[in-house]
Write a structure and sequence with these properties.
Chain lengths: 354, 346
């Protein structure tokens, strides 16, 4: 177990270095003028200014010097301040939103976390529940329905699903609007009397005692959560069902039945815990994978999270912003994957004991 | 065809073998490949999938008949009936810049005028035309990306498995690094970086899919080769002194690769799905190019009135879903045939 964790930890610096090289490599597709946005946000009015900036930030230096500057930034000789340097959180200047990339991330990321937190519960519990039901009623009506759902689900692109539910629940029924908040509540949230304790809107609303704001936020998040969930349900259902079917064929399940346990105990206490092994990893990666899923979902529902921001920046070809997001996401995902892998080590006896 | 009865002494075996007739098709394909073909027609789901794929192949093949292009040299350009923003419902008559009438139209409907069968989207792009020619775009992108990624995957995977040691380590760490970002985000970024260089064509997204798409194949082929490497016939070849490269190319790869190839061909569905997603976000082809994601993206400006303009999303959306579902259904059936351990589970 210790060797497993150590080996897994040793991979982290490799991944960090690799991802930084990958993103730095993509930056090299840009000309020096565009790369200057990493350090300054001026529009260059003359050739001289431009050349001065290129010289100052060493944008035509050898590639390893540039890589070092990109990581650590340079010290401004006049003011003595550090300019740039992604390790210090300076991802550059976002031209499309006219603010530092890091500010954009600070504004948008909590919204995405808020959405993801609300999606995780339904994804995992409903997905597993559906899978267990399908396996227990093997070849019954529930099972057939679940199989059809899982095949249709994996073939249904998120954005088509999103547009369809918008058509039904917003355009036709007017139940769940897109966006983040209704305008009146938006003003409430921006007013001084509303304290941002955690920057997660739903939790802050509860902490402020504004139940109406909380409900309005939930109403806006219902469709995005549904869209994020259904695709994951399809895969979690499949894996749970398969693993559960296999477990139910094991001899200890027969033993449990033979000694006269109720079917509910057989399933809940003997079969299900053992069938959860592959599901745990999958659930971990599903949660981590939400970071990719939010790009489409947030765009369809006009939800102001980091995914929608990344999509907008990409479409407007604001590469500095996009790569800033990529670096930020890369860091988060490396850590998240590490956590999932280590947790898996604790859950799976084959890893734990090797 | 004659049934050959074994004349061995074992009567039980004789009965078992003689009962099965071997058809002409099975003879031509060989038992393994025949089993794969059989899998395509085994379950109702597989039959539906095979039918859907055939259906889309036919649409792609007969695209010029179903929706004649305005300019035969540039058929992927969706013809526009004027420039007004507001979409028109299905069945509206075509007013300006009408493409040639398809030959079957008069025979079927008895009318002389070409109409918008599925309506028009924002900017009067004909949806029917986009859906029909979008099928060709789907096959083109899907096939190109899958062929390229499988080739790269095979090369990297077999080098990694064959040389082992630090080569294997370095290659697999590169795979790990490329796996860090979610596929959609990685391809979105790379396509955005490449668009100014390659222009607004199919290319940036396709290159991005290839760069990030081979990872899974490389891993699968690597592990398949590692397991085939342990088999006795490889040992036998080594014992009689066959060259290593010949063992890899002639003995190991052919035995390890067939499942991957079949399954990869079914990955076309996934590629088309991701491609439509990027296109929906606005990365990819130029405005008015016949591709499903783009037609769907026109709906984004009409969210509040989708109850009136349902046809902008329903027709291309259903087409895309059916296309991907065809490949997924057949993929499931083939996975059952190729990997008996999974039979009945998925």
């Amino acid at each position: 177990m210790t060797t497993y964790i150590i080996r897994r930890l040793l991979l982290v610096p490799v991944l960090l270095f690799g991802v930084s090289i990958l993103i730095f490599g993509m930056l090299q597709f840009l000309g020096p003028v565009e790369r200057a946005s990493l350090y300054v946000h001026d529009d260059f009015k003359s050739e001289n200014q431009l050349n001065a900036a290129i010289k100052k930030y060493c944008l035509d230096c050898p590639i390893y010097v540039q890589y070092k500057n990109w990581l650590l930034g340079t010290i401004d000789s006049v003011s003595g301040e550090r300019v740039g340097g992604i390790l210090y959180g300076n991802f550059g200047w976002s031209k499309t939103s006219s603010q530092p990339v890091v500010e954009l991330i600070k504004h948008r990321f909590p919204n995405t976390v808020d959405l993801a937190l609300w999606a995780i519960g339904p994804i995992i519990f409903i997905g597993i529940w559906l899978g267990v039901q399908a396996a227990v009623h093997h070849n019954g009506i529930i099972d057939q329905a679940a199989r059809i759902f899982s095949i249709v689900g994996t073939s249904f692109p998120t954005f088509v699903f999103g547009l369809l539910v918008l058509m039904i629940f917003y355009a036709n029924l007017q139940w769940f609007p897109p966006g983040r908040l209704t305008d009146t509540y938006n003003q409430v949230v921006r007013s001084d009397s509303f304290h941002n304790y955690t920057t997660l809107l739903t939790i802050d609303a509860l902490l402020n005692g504004r139940f109406d704001v909380f409900l309005d936020a939930l109403r806006h998040m219902f469709l995005p959560v549904l869209t994020l969930s259904y695709l994951s349900w399809a895969t979690i259902l499949r894996v749970t069902r398969g693993s559960m079917l296999e477990t139910l064929r094991q001899e200890y399940v027969t033993t449990a039945r033979a000694k006269g346990l109720s079917e509910r105990d057989v399933i809940n206490k003997h079969a299900r815990p053992n069938a959860m092994l592959p599901v745990v990893t999958l659930a971990g990666f599903t949660v981590v994978g939400l970071m990719g899923g939010v790009i489409i979902t947030e765009t369809v529902f006009n939800y102001p999270g980091i995914g929608a921001a990344a999509a907008t920046a990409s479409v407007q070809l604001d590469v500095i912003t996009v790569l800033g997001f990529a670096m930020f996401n890369g860091l988060i995902l490396i850590v998240a994957n590490l956590v999932v892998d280590v947790l898996y080590g604790f859950v799976d006896p084959r890893v734990r004991l090797s | 065809m004659t049934v050959v009865n074994p004349t061995g002494d074992n009567e039980l075996l004789g009965d078992a073998v003689a009962m099965r007739k071997i058809g002409r098709l099975e003879r031509a394909l060989g038992p393994d490949n025949y089993r794969v073909v059989q899998g395509l027609f085994k379950t109702p789901a597989a039959v539906i999938g095979t039918f859907l794929i055939t259906f889309f192949v036919l649409i792609a093949a007969f695209a010029p008949l179903l929706a004649p292009p305005l300019n035969p040299n540039d058929p992927y350009d969706i013809p526009r009936d004027g420039f007004k923003a507001e979409p028109k419902p299905p069945g509206t008559e075509w007013k300006v810049r009408q493409p040639p009438l398809p030959v079957w139209w008069k025979a079927v409907t008895g009318k002389d005028n070409w109409v918008h069968i599925m309506g028009t989207s924002e900017g009067q792009y004909d949806i029917w035309y986009g859906v029909v020619w979008g099928t060709r775009t789907a096959f083109r992108t899907g096939l190109t990306v899958v062929i390229a990624t499988v080739l790269i995957g095979i090369i990297i995977g077999s080098i990694s498995a064959y040389y082992g040691g630090w080569v294997d380590n370095v290659l697999m760490r590169i795979v790990d690094v490329l796996y860090v970002l979610p596929f959609l985000m990685a391809t979105l970024i790379l396509a955005a970086v490449l668009t100014p260089i390659l222009g607004r064509t199919l290319l940036p997204a396709m290159v991005a899919f290839i760069v990030f798409g081979w990872l899974g194949y490389a891993r699968v082929i690597r592990s398949d080769i590692l397991s085939v490497k342990q088999r006795d016939f490889v040992l036998a070849a080594q014992v009689i002194g066959v060259q290593d490269s010949r063992i890899l190319l002639r003995h190991i790869i052919p035995n390890a690769i067939f499942p991957t190839l079949v399954l990869a061909s079914l990955g076309i569905g996934d590629v088309v799905l991701s491609f439509a997603a990027l296109s929906f976000l606005g990365i990819g082809t130029a405005l008015g190019y016949a591709d499903w994601g783009q037609i769907l993206s026109f709906a984004r400006n009409w969210i509040t009135s989708l109850n009136t303009y349902w046809y902008i999303i329903v027709y291309p959306g259903v087409t895309l879903v059916l296309y991907v579902m065809g490949f997924n259904l057949v993929g499931d059936a083939l996975r059952d045939v190729l990997d008996p351990r999974l039979r009945g589970k998925v």
